[in-house]
Amino acid sequence: MSKEKVVLAYSGGLDTSVCVKWLQDEKNLDVVCVCGNVGQEETGLDAKKEKALDLGVLDCQVLDLRDEFSDEFLTKAIAANSMYENKYPLLSALSRPLLAKKLVEVAHEFGATYVAHGCTGKGNDQVRFEAAVKALDPELKVIAPVREWDLKCRPDEVAYAHAHNVPVPEGANDNPYSIDDNLWGRAIECGHLEDPWNEPLDDAWVMTKNPEDTPDTPTYTEIEFEAGKPVAVDGKKMKLSEIVIALNKISGDNGFGRLDLVEDRLVGLKSRECYEVPGALTLITAHKALEDICVEGDLLKTKIKLEQDWATAVYNGQWYSPLKNALDAFMADTQKFVTGTVRLKFFKGNCHVVGRKSPFSLYDYGLATYDRDTTFDEKASAGFIEIDTLSLKTWAKVQGPSSAAAQA
C-alpha cells in the first residue's frame, strides 16, 4: 500500500533537513521538497537538491521565483509603500505567500494530502504559510514539525540529525543569528540581538557598508517609474529584479538601508529585529516622492492611511484575503499617473530626495510661487477661512473656554 504524500517547504538547512527525516519516520509519509529561490542566494541550490534526494525524498523541485516574486509581489509592495508599523519594508511576509502557492501547486501535481513547513510556534511565518494554504486549497492539511517535536534547541536538532544520518554542515551550532533573506533584503534576529540594549555587531550586516567607510563624496542616482513601477536606474531600462539588485549595490555601498527596531509580532509578543533593506528602502523613498507630485491631495491622504492596513494585512498572512485584494485594487488605481523620475543623493548612510519630475505632475509653479507672477488669488483666502471656521466660531460662542457655559 502506497504512503500518503507531504510537500515540504525546503531550504536545505538544518531545520528542514531534519524535517524530512522526521516526516518520513514519525509520520510515515513520502516527502516531496520544494526549494524556492526568491533571491536569497545565487549558488548552492543543486547541492541542496542532491542532499534532499540523498535523504530519500520522492522529488525535490528547485524553482527560480525571482522574477515572479518581483513582478507579482514586489510591485504591489511598492504601490502600497509597504512599511509595517511605519518602520520597515515588509520582507519575509512578501515571500511566504508565493512559496505557499508553490507548495499547493506541487501538492496538486503529486496528489499529496499534506503540506509542511519548518516554522516555529513563536513566529509569524507559520501563520503566513498556513493562511495562504487555506486560502488556496482549504482541503490540504498542514503539518508543522517544529511545533510538534521535542527538539527544543539547535543542539537537540544536531544530535537528532547525527542519529538519523542527516548531514550536518560544519559549524551548525556556531551561527549567532537567525537570518531570513530574499531579493528585498535580510531579516536578522536572535543571539546578541535578543537584548534590545545591545548595539548590533558589525558581523550582522553584509549588504551595507559601515557609513563611516563609505565614499567622502555624495552619490547621485535617478530612478524612473511608469504607472508606479520602477523601470530604469540612471537611464538604463531593466526588469524589476535587476533594478532591486542594482539599488542594493548602490545604496549598500553608501551605507543606506540598515534598520534596528522592535516590532509587534502577530502572535502577541514584541521582537527586536534588525533589517538590511537598501534597495527596498530606496525604492519606497523614491516612490513616495513621486506620488507627492502625481497623486491628488485627498486621495494621497487616504492612501497613506490605507497603506498601514495593507502592510498589516500582509504581515498577518492575509495576502490572498478579500481585504488585501480590495486594497490592491485601490492601490493600483492610485498608480495610473505615477510616472516620472526621482533623483536621490546618498551620503554616509543617508538617502535624500533632491529632485522629482513627471509629465503628470500636479505641482503648479504658478500657484506655488511667492514671486510677483503668482496666479494664486490670495484675496479668496479670507472667504475660505470664514466658511472653514464657522463651526468652530459657533462652538466657541456657546461651549468654548470663554463662553458663559464654560464659566458657570
Which residues sit in consecutive blocks of at least 5 with pLDDT less than 50? none
Order of strands side by side in the largest beta sheet? 3-2-1-6-7
How large is the radius of gyration?
26 Å
* C-alpha termini separation: 89 Å
Main β sheet profile: 5 strands, parallel
- Mass-distribution shape: elongated
Q: How large is the share of residues in beta strands?
A: 15-25%
| Rounded average pLDDT | 93
H/I helix tally: 15
Helix percent reads 40-55%
**What structural category arises from helix and sheet content?**
alpha/beta
Number of strands: 16
Question: What can you tell me about this protein's structure?
Answer:
Helix 10 packs antiparallel against helix 11 (322-334). This protein has helices at 14-26, 45-54, 66-79, 92-110, 125-136, 145-148, 154-163, 240-253, 278-294, 297-315, 322-334, 365-368, 380-388, 390-398, 404-407; strands at residues 5-9, 30-37, 59-64, 83-84, 88-89, 114-116, 141-143, 178-182, 185-189, 219-226, 229-233, 236-237, 258-264, 270-276, 340-347, 350-357. The model has no long low-confidence stretch (mean pLDDT 93). The chain has 15 helices and 16 strands. Helices cover 42% and strands 21% of the residues. The chain is elongated, with a radius of gyration of 26 Å.
Question: Summarize this, please?
Answer:
Helix content is 42%, strand content 21%.
Features:
alpha/beta, 15 helices, 5-stranded parallel beta sheet, elongated, 408 residues, 42% helix, 5-stranded antiparallel beta sheet, single chain, 16 strands
